[in-house]
Amino acid sequence: MKIIVGLSGGVDSSVAAYLLKQQGYDVEAMFMQNWHDTTGTLHGDCEWEEELSVAKMVAKKIGIPFHFVDLSDIYRKQVVDYMFAEYAAGRTPNPDVMCNSKIKFDAFLKCALELGGDFVATGHYCKKESEFIRTSDSTEKEVFKLIAGDDPNKDQSYFLCQLSQSQLQRAMFPIGHLTKPQVRQIAHEAGLPSADKKDSQGICFVGKVDLPIFLQQKLKSVEGNVIEIFEKDYPNIRERELASLKESKSYILGNQTEKALLEEAMQIHYTPEEGKIIGKHIGVQYYTIGQRHGLGIGGHVNSIFVIATDIQTNTIYVGEGVNHPGLHRRGLLIKPSDIHWIREDRRMNEGEKREYMVRIRYRQQLQKATLHMTQFGLFVSFEQEQKSITAGQFAAWYNPLNCELEGSGVID
């Protein structure tokens, strides 16, 4: 059995390769270059060349063949262009999720298969299991389960929430049962050159970036107003928005449960007249819900947060304090076309509801929620209100019994 390890030059993928070699597998390493342009990056020159050098040294130390592949063209089309399109539409994308589903376990996987590989292994902190289920025609079928990693501080299953059964079938996660300190210890004991290498930060394969400069490659900077919505005015604004919702076709056609869910997931669309202009910004596409840094506005006792953006009018709406009601919602909606099930046998039918643990961003603590499948899509109704629910991000739901990630979807 041949396993191709995606060797990045970091300690996690290095230990993954080392462990597989120690276990007696036929292991080969492949480094993928996905980005050339350093526009907007904060690390300076050609960080990928340093990563490549370390990856080569690790492969030599372990004693495994080393390969190089340039996937920059497909990465730009599948990940970077997606980023630009989402920001241009006023949403906040998650390029790491797309990188895994479109690059690491798609384009890279195809290259690995061409090398004769049977599996692709990565340094993700998550686990894979399988079981046999009986199908409707009474035959048995093997299904693959994506399980949260044992290290609660490093679990990366969320980033893999868009994987399919065919992708999981070919995947291996050798360090999912380990903690980060344990991985570092193994690397030191094995004398791996990446043992003390810091974790990568920022956008997958691009690095840490100055987002406005990075986005200005395609999105023009246009000055607009920052408008503060005062907490005392919020109840009247919400009542106005609720009245508008009740006149919508969706609300009229919905049953009582669906009406309540629509109210929970309702987004407030503010108007300039409902607040006060307190500053200027450089372009609405550079800001996201919940952001409090980079606004450059003082004169407040508490921090101010972005509570809404309007791409059409190039307006940012902000509120003072972490408890501003404009920052919080109890529910969200995922449109039918944006619902993804890792386990097709777990797909919900219209009218069905289930209890899950859900997260709406990486490293967020799992939250208790009820999922409702309706004619309008999948509603996620949280037990407690959630801060900064952001359109374009992914909601991922986990089975509360075994921490299996069963599905995900793009927040509307």
Please specify the SSE layout and strand pairing.
Layout lengths: L1 E5 L4 H12 L3 E8 L13 H16 L3 E5 L1 H17 L6 H20 L4 E3 L4 E9 L5 E9 L16 H5 L1 E2 L7 H11 L20 H5 L8 E5 L5 H13 L2 H5 L2 H9 L11 E6 L22 E7 L4 E6 L7 E7 L4 E3 L11 E7 L7 E8 L2 E11 L6 E6 L4 E7 L2
Helix pairs in contact: 1-2, 1-6, 3-4
Q: Could you explain the architecture of this structure?
A:
It is a single chain. With 412 residues, the chain is of the alpha/beta class. It has a domain at 2-123 and 174-215: 3-Layer(aba) Sandwich (Rossmann fold), CATH 3.40.50. The chain has ten helices and 18 strands. The strands form three sheets. Strands 5, 6, 12, 13, 14, 15, 16, 17 and 18 form a nine-stranded antiparallel β-sheet that branches. A five-stranded parallel β-sheet has the order 3-2-1-4-7, sandwiched between helices. A hairpin with a 2-residue loop joins strand 15 (367-374) and strand 16 (377-387). The two termini are 43 Å apart. The model has no long low-confidence stretch (mean pLDDT 94).
What's the main sheet like? 9 strands, antiparallel
CATH architecture of the domain at 2-123 and 174-215: 3-Layer(aba) Sandwich
Question: Which residues sit in consecutive blocks of at least 5 with pLDDT less than 50?
Answer: none
Strand content: 25-35%
Using the CA coordinates, give the radius of gyration: 23 Å
Number of strands: 18
Question: What's the number of helices?
Answer: 10
What percent of residues adopt helix (DSSP H or I)?
25-40%
Secondary-structure element sequence? Answer: EHEHEHHEEEHEHHEHHHEEEEEEEEEE
Q: Whole-Å distance between the termini?
A: 43 Å
